[in-house]
Specification:
36% helix, seven-stranded antiparallel beta sheet, five-stranded mixed beta sheet, 22 strands, alpha+beta, 638 residues
Length: 638
């Protein structure tokens, strides 16, 4: 057996690897991300470094060697309070790295009652006493070894732990301070489609439970092992299947293995002058197969589309055998689309192994922008008008006042006296002469992509619409900082957990006439319920409008509370999100826009799809997987 041993598959420590890790995100997060002149645009994007040679990956096969086993992201990146009592972001992967954030500590003190004296460090390693011995089906192990001798396999404790959770508050809290009820028993790393076929056949033969795992970035409880499962649970880590198999420049398509991580896929396409343009908030760590399995959406969907609009073909291995379309034509009329059986299936029917996607030439020009609005209502009006006129840039995101203040708090110290003076003048102009109230003003971040001429024309049109809703241009730097906040949220959550802050995020989609009322109703509900908890500090409850459509928008909520004095912080947060979700549905919103169902939202599926709809999904499950080999227990109500 090709068992995993300590240090096996260790990634290179070379400088070239370090430079390349977050190549794709560098355009959003590094200082060099300035506007491109037309001459610079013509030769592509000069801000991105050349790829390192060899087999480069977002993270090694044994992900815990580089990623946090009990938190978000990379081990060498995160927030901390330094010896000067200042909050700083350590590490060099992001623009914010190595900088003290003088306003961030005061923001957390004012909004959530930050108290350094209650610091509770997360455990450095799991307690072996909390992790039961693995359930090992020896016949399955021997059979798999006979079928695929080269497949990497492991039942070492750390491999089991990191494959047993995603990134809900409950899961991360349990990783840091508690334990999971059930852990996977075994981990395998197939290397190609044929190996997955052999794996699934072997699991069916020996009645073993399989749980597919990509980047493990889900926030729906999708990877939580059903505690009642008595069979051997095998986590199928797909990240060895990380190749781009071909690029068709004539038809603008790419065919890739489903385990490839988002940033690696974009980097490989850049070599050919293309991109998918699909950038979910988790793209630096999430996988292509995960995007398919959850019906993902990206920040730049206005130009490139959501995942369902990018997909041309999917290969999936089910217990009944492989399933795929026979051609890669742009559109077919052959009954119900089988792709829609695979998308959103959340590991219940089988394993997605390969995907063909539509691609686009790399944009010649990329430009950030931002707009300030006097209040959230004006900002929503602007978003609606942009959607109505179908002139949305690649990304347009409206944040409420709370998130605007958070983004401002993440701004580092002024680079010079002149910069500090200039910032003061801007603030004076906005507050004094424009009359914006700092406690209710909101901000909108923009990203334009295309030819220099197209970007210039689009900017003119978007800023003109903004002026009709009392908006004023806020500058490019604020636009970049808005993107920075997107990638920092999960790191902030993990930092706050060490000081008794617990929180989570959830999203929905809703028709335009109900956007404002839904935001208001959800916030009011959460504030009322938080008042009953007798919190030591006010809760932080905020929202942003992240994606726009002709008929509605996606709204993303964040909430956090100081859990000091609360006996069960996880139960408190779960209760709050449950009430918020009930309010969302009562206000006309959907149960999810792009996070999916997993386990934590199953209770609303029947209400969302009807009993007949749920019965149809059950029938598909029974057909594809009559023995419940893929027994992850997502999506369907119990």
């Amino acid at each position: 057996m090709a068992s995993t041993s300590k240090g096996q598959e260790k990634s290179s420590a070379s400088d070239s690897t370090a430079k390349r890790r977050l190549d794709v995100l560098s355009g959003h997060l590094r200082k060099g991300a300035v506007d491109l002149k037309a001459a610079e645009c013509a030769s592509g994007d000069p801000r991105r470094t050349a790829p390192a040679s060899g087999d480069q990956r977002a993270f090694p096969v044994r992900r815990q060697e580089e990623l946090k086993w009990n938190g978000w992201g990379y081990q060498d990146s995160g927030f901390r309070i330094n010896e000067r009592g200042m909050i700083e972001f350590y590490g060099k992967r992001y623009q914010i790295g190595g900088r003290e954030l003088p306003s961030f500590r005061s923001f957390l003190e004012d909004h959530l009652g930050l108290d350094e004296s209650v610091y509770r460090p997360p455990r450095e390693m799991p307690d072996p006493a909390d992790i039961a011995e693995p359930v090992l089906n020896r016949a399955f192990i021997a059979g798999l070894q006979q079928r695929v001798k080269s497949m990497q396999q492991s039942h070492e404790m750390m491999d089991r732990v990191v494959h047993s959770h995603g990134h809900t508050m409950e899961e991360i809290y349990n990783m840091c301070y508690g334990k999971m009820e059930r852990y996977v028993d075994y981990v395998v790393w197939p290397a190609n489609h044929d190996e997955v076929v052999q794996l699934v056949e072997c699991a069916c033969q020996h009645n073993v439970c399989l749980i597919p795992c990509g980047g493990a970035t889900n926030v729906s409880g999708a990877l939580i092992c059903p505690p009642e499962e008595k069979r051997m649970i095998v986590s199928v880590d797909m990240t060895k299947m990380n190749r781009v198999l071909w690029v068709d420049k004539e038809n603008l398509t790419v065919h890739a293995e489903a385990g490839i991580i988002g940033q690696d896929l974009e980097h490989e396409l850049e070599k050919h002058g293309f991109c998918t343009g699909h950038e979910p908030d988790s793209m630096e760590l999430s996988s292509l197969g995960g995007w398919v399995a959850t019906r993902a959406s990206g920040m730049k969907k206005n130009i490139y589309g959501n995942i369902e609009e990018l997909i041309v073909r999917i290969r999936m291995v089910t217990p009944q055998g492989p399933m795929e379309k026979s051609c890669v034509a742009p559109r077919v009329s052959v009954g119900p689309d089988i792709h829609h059986m695979m998308m959103g299936s959340e590991g219940m029917f089988g394993i997605v192994t390969e995907v063909t996607l539509r691609i686009r030439p790399l944009p010649q020009c990329r430009k950030y922008g931002s707009i300030l609005f006097p209040d959230f209502t004006s900002g929503v009006g602007f978003m609606r008008e942009v959607a109505k006129q179908r002139c949305a840039p690649a990304s347009v995101r409206l944040v409420d006042n709370e998130q605007f203040q958070l983004g401002h708090a993440l701004k580092g110290p002024a680079a010079s006296i002149f910069t500090s003076w200039l910032d003061s003048m801007k603030k004076l102009y906005v507050l004094k002469f424009k009359g914006f109230d700092p406690d209710i003003l909101t901000g909108c971040t923009l990203l334009f992509e295309g030819t220099p001429e197209d970007v210039a024309a689009q900017e003119k049109r978007v800023y003109h619409i903004a002026s009709q809703y009392k908006g004023m241009a806020g500058g490019e730097e604020n636009g970049r900082r808005g993107y920075l906040l997107t990638f920092m949220i999960a790191y902030i959550r993990d930092f706050g957990l060490q000081y008794l802050f617990v929180g989570d995020s959830f999203e929905t989609s809703v028709p335009w006439p109900r956007v404002l009322s839904l935001c208001r109703n959800v916030k009011d509900t959460l504030r009322r319920e938080c008042a009953k908890l007798n919190l030591v500090a006010n809760p932080l409850i905020s929202c942003r409008v992240t994606q726009t459509y002709d008929s509605g928008a996606c709204i993303y909520f964040y909430m956090a509370i100081n859990s000091k004095g609360i006996a069960d912080p996880v139960a408190a947060i779960d209760g709050l999100e449950t009430l918020a979700r009930d309010e969302i549905l009562a206000s006309g919103g959907s149960v999810s826009h792009h996070h999916g169902i997993g386990k934590i939202r199953k209770r609303w599926v029947t209400e969302s799809l009807s009993e007949q709809g749920v019965d149809a999904i059950r029938a598909l499950k029974k057909h594809f997987d009559p023995k419940n080999i893929f027994g992850v227990n997502n999506l369907l109500p119990n």
